[in-house]
Specification:
Blueprint (H helix, E strand, L loop, with lengths): L2 H10 L1 H11 L13 E5 L8 H10 L4 E4 L10 H12 L4 E10 L2 H13 L4 E6 L4 H11 L2 E5 L11 H8 L6 E6 H6 L4 H7 L4 E6 L1 E2 L8 E2 L8 H11 L4 E4 L9 H17 L4
Parallel strand pairs: 1-2, 1-10, 2-3, 3-4, 4-5, 5-6, 6-7, 7-10
Antiparallel strand pairs: 8-9
Length: 279
């Protein structure tokens, strides 16, 4: 079976059943999950839902790690609210590993992002510091030990459009300054996410995994396995190179009813990993 037909088969048969099983049961069984990668959620996927609902929905989708966006944990939340966030996730067996995407356009916003991460016990910020703030951000990393992963935003973004545009800015800075690669935006700018992951692996701290309808600026988010990204090839790079970060699903479609598509996407990724003998 050639690669195209195999991917089509995965998207339309067995893994659809996996996704439906995930949706119809309280949680995805850990015995069938992919143990070689940490699978999590960028909470923007559930932007129309409360924090408590988002936590339960992510858990139900079989995910173990969470990156909170500000609608679920506001940047200006009281310290007590920030400090209580990790326990809310721990109570359902999940880990709060980062916050973001956080835009940083001034020193005050950099300071706020680091205070936010520190108070919430987040080891990493998924952020977008302006170019003129990179040195200041670098010093904050050195003082706090909190890592920063810069998110690329694809075509139309003049700050960090591609993984390479991030890497060139941070390659000589503190090794805790890295990249959050959004593979959808990477594909939409005409780059192969698998090749980009391999090229910049030494600074690859976080991943926003998704699929898109075309390799153009007009490409929209679709369920993983239904789009143009070669997801098996991308996952193979991560597994082969021993990626230790989180693969965070960012499902931007169906904002009012995201669970069916999110669970289908999780099922597809876990199915690919099982086919690789890694699940």
């Amino acid at each position: 079976m050639n690669d195209f037909n195999r991917r089509k088969f995965l998207a339309t048969s067995g893994l659809a059943a996996v996704a439906l099983t995930t949706w119809n049961t309280p949680a995805y069984s850990s015995s069938t999950s992919a143990a070689t990668l940490n699978l999590g959620l960028a909470s923007y996927s559930l932007r129309k839902f409360s924090q408590s609902d988002a936590i339960l929905m992510a858990k139900r989708a079989g995910l173990t790690h969470m990156c909170f966006k500000s609608m679920h944990l506001p940047l200006d939340a009281p310290t007590s609210e920030l400090q209580s966030a990790p326990k809310k996730l721990a109570d359902v067996g999940m880990t709060l590993y980062a916050g973001g995407v956080i835009y940083m356009k001034s020193k005050a916003e950099v300071d706020q992002a680091f205070a936010y991460a520190k108070n919430a016990g987040m080891p990493m910020i998924i952020g977008v510091p302006n170019h003129d703030l990179l040195e200041y951000t670098n010093e904050k990393i050195k003082r706090t030990g909190i890592r920063v992963a810069i998110h690329n935003h694809g075509p139309g973004d003049e700050v960090y459009p591609s993984p390479g545009s991030v890497y060139e800015k941070i390659k000589n800075l503190d090794p805790r300054f890295g990249l959050c690669m959004d593979i959808g935006h990477t594909q939409r700018i005409g780059l192969d996410p698998a090749k980009e992951a391999e090229k910049y692996f030494d600074r690859l701290f976080d991943i926003h995994i998704k699929d898109v309808s075309s390799s153009t600026p007009e490409g929209d988010t679709v369920e993983i396995g239904r789009g143009v990204i070669d997801i098996p090839a991308f996952l193979k790079v991560l597994v082969t190179k021993g990626y230790k970060g989180v693969v965070a699903f960012e499902y931007e479609k169906d904002e009012n009813d995201p669970m069916p598509g999110l669970c289908e996407s999780v099922g597809y990724v876990k199915g690919c990993l099982r086919m690789m003998g890694k699940g």
